[in-house]
Write a structure and sequence with these properties.
- This protein is 61% helix and 4% strand.
- It is built from seven helices and two strands.
- The longest helix has 27 residues.
Length: 190
């Protein structure tokens, strides 16, 4: 008997739409803020990781790629990926790039730096992305969008690679948002 699907089983479509829309118009990258705010609010208000467990479109996308498309090797990931030191270290690493993105956005807004129409991919490479920039958008708005899309696209690429090499949702064991919500839940429930 097939399991009846619920509406939240299709959240992977939302994640796919986000990356598609941002590819063609970088301003849509601002929608990524929702992916940051909702899990944090659910953890703060409800004290649970309900977003990660039921609504995360990215996690569901990894399940689609790994299970539905059969692209996962199904191997167990190395234990160090789920270790506390790695999860917390990766969270600090992620927050560093997030703060760097905000600083660059503020500098563009102040006129201290000019808009960089690039995606900072895999924390190393600046990939030109100018075709997705509508000229009528305020430069600092576009700068934040380029930065956020770069962070989101990088995490997608890392997650897809981990899904293929190991199991679907391997990314989830050290996802910065999941780690932050887990910390919030522990504080709230103690």
């Amino acid at each position: 008997m097939k399991k009846k699907r619920k509406w939240n089983d299709y959240m992977w479509l939302v994640s796919s739409a986000y990356f598609t829309m941002g590819f063609f118009n970088i301003v849509f990258a601002w929608l990524g803020i929702i992916c940051f705010m909702i899990p944090l609010l659910m953890a703060i208000i409800g004290g649970t990781k309900g977003y990660c467990n039921s609504y995360c479109g990215r996690g569901q996308l990894f399940l689609q790629i790994g299970n539905s498309l059969g692209l996962s090797h199904g191997k167990v990931a190395p234990r160090w990926l789920s270790s506390k030191w790695f999860r917390n270290g990766f969270l600090v690493f992620f927050l560093f790039f997030f703060v760097q993105m905000i600083v660059l956005t503020v500098n563009v807004a102040r006129g201290a730096e000019s808009l960089s129409e690039t995606i900072h991919l895999l924390w190393t490479f600046n990939v030109p992305w100018g075709w997705a920039y509508p000229m009528h958008v305020v430069p600092w708005v576009a700068q934040f969008a380029f930065g956020l899309y770069g962070i989101m696209l990088t995490s997608l690429i890392v997650g897809v690679v981990l899904t293929i090499v190991y199991r679907p949702r391997t990314w989830c064991v050290f996802c910065p948002m999941g780690n932050m919500t887990q910390m919030i839940c522990k504080l709230k429930n103690n």
